[in-house]
Write a structure and sequence with these properties.
alpha+beta, Enolase-like, domain 1, 2 domains, three-stranded antiparallel sheet, 4 helices, 3 strands, membrane, transmembrane
Length: 142
C-alpha cells in the first residue's frame, strides 16, 4: 500500500452555495430565538404600573343594540367606568341594565379591584354580562 496524498476538489459554486446555506440557517435560528423569547424589558417595574393609562372601550350587544362600555384608567387606578351610547329601546326593554351597571361600576371603582363584586341574585344574568364586559375592558389595559 502506498501512501499517496488524496486530493479533494471543490468547485467554487458548491462552496458559495454551502456558505449561503449556513448563513441562512444561522439567520433562521437567530430569528426563532428572538421571536420566542420572553420579553424582559418593560418601561416600568410591575409594582409601579398596574395599567396602561388611557380610555378603553368595549361593546356588548343586547337584542341587536350595541352599548359601549368605557373605562378610564391611569397607571394605578380605575378612575371611572361608564356606559355610553345606550339606546332608549334597551333602557326600556331592559330596565335593570343601568342600575346594575352603576352598582358594578361603583363597587369596582371604590375597591379598585375586580374581586368580590356582589350582585342581586334576581338579576344574575344582567350582572354577569356587564361584569364580564367590564373585566374584559380592564384586562385589555394590563
Amino acid at each position: 500500500m502506498s501512501k499517496s496524498p488524496k486530493f479533494m476538489v471543490f468547485h467554487l459554486k458548491e462552496l458559495i452555495y454551502t456558505f449561503i446555506l449556513i448563513v441562512l440557517g444561522i439567520a433562521l435560528i437567530i430569528t426563532l430565538v428572538l421571536m420566542f423569547r420572553k420579553d424582559t424589558t418593560t418601561s416600568a417595574p410591575a409594582s409601579d404600573c398596574t395599567y396602561k393609562a388611557g380610555v378603553y372601550s368595549s361593546y356588548i350587544t343586547l337584542n341587536g343594540n350595541p352599548m359601549e362600555i368605557q373605562v378610564v384608567l391611569d397607571d394605578n387606578h380605575i378612575n371611572s367606568i361608564t356606559i355610553e351610547n345606550i339606546d332608549d329601546s334597551v333602557a326600556t326593554m331592559y330596565p335593570l341594565v343601568k342600575p346594575a351597571f352603576e352598582d358594578i361600576a361603583n363597587q369596582i371603582v371604590s375597591t379598585q379591584s375586580l374581586e368580590n363584586v356582589s350582585y342581586n341574585p334576581e338579576s344574575q344574568y344582567t350582572y354577569s354580562v356587564l361584569y364580564n364586559a367590564i373585566c374584559d375592558t380592564i384586562n385589555s389595559a394590563k
